[in-house]
Amino acid sequence: MDDNNYILPFQTINGYRYGGKLEFSNLVGNQNPVKRISRTEYVDLNGEVQKYQQISKNRSESLESLVRTMKRLSRYIEHNFSGNKNELWITLTYAENVTDSKRVYSDFKAFMKKIRRHYGHVEYISVLEPQKRGAWHIHALFKSDIDDYFYIANSHLQKLWKHGFVKVKKLKNSDNVASYVTAYLTDLKHEDGNNKKIEKGARLHLYPSGMNFYRMSRGIEKPEKLKGTKYEIFKQYGMNNSAYAPDKIYYHDIDLGDGKSFLYKREFYKMKYEGDDDESNPN
Prior knowledge:
The chain has a domain of about 130 residues: Alpha-Beta Plaits. Helices cover about 20% and strands about 30% of the residues. The chain has a five-stranded antiparallel β-sheet. The C terminus is likely disordered. This is Replicative protein.
């Protein structure tokens, strides 16, 4: 992709700052404004009445919405977890085939009271993972506010959870925690004899419609929302990144109708400062 296709330095963007990363998008405001006249109808740019497409009642049919939710979750994870010694990744399962998400959330709430009684204040992001048979697993990222080194023995975790199998994993600084977690939640493993295959994104089809499948404790920090030009934002943070050298860029055309389209761009920058090479400023 040549420089002409990057978001320009003085172009207004929407974005986020999380962890040591900036995410920019050139989708600012409504690119194709229409006048809504009812829940089912709107007036298009030509003044003609059109009907909205029926909203899917099954979340597995609305993968685009689910992907956006996963992106939001990924930002929260990357902003709050980096594989430090006071962080854990845990898995909680049920011995029985529990399909009631309300029960799962209720059990997890009671479980967290026990965790904090034994280990002090722990911040968390918890996520429900659907299984093919309809049952739920819980995955959670824990962060201790008290201990520099935090660990829960598998045997003690199982005693506190008491509903089924559990697993504790220490994530390392070298792990990309957000990518690891979201891949774990969206991909499906298939086993055929000795052959194992990972189907990317296949688990997304198992999530039910309209469900809030992740929750977090009050101490989890929100990614910072940004709006301005790239030049202004780079200057605000004292960064020396090149506006024409994002670490990653994704783009695709959005159909606006009437033969018009909009090139949607998302750029990602690791925040670099004066005197830095490739790493984010630790301060």
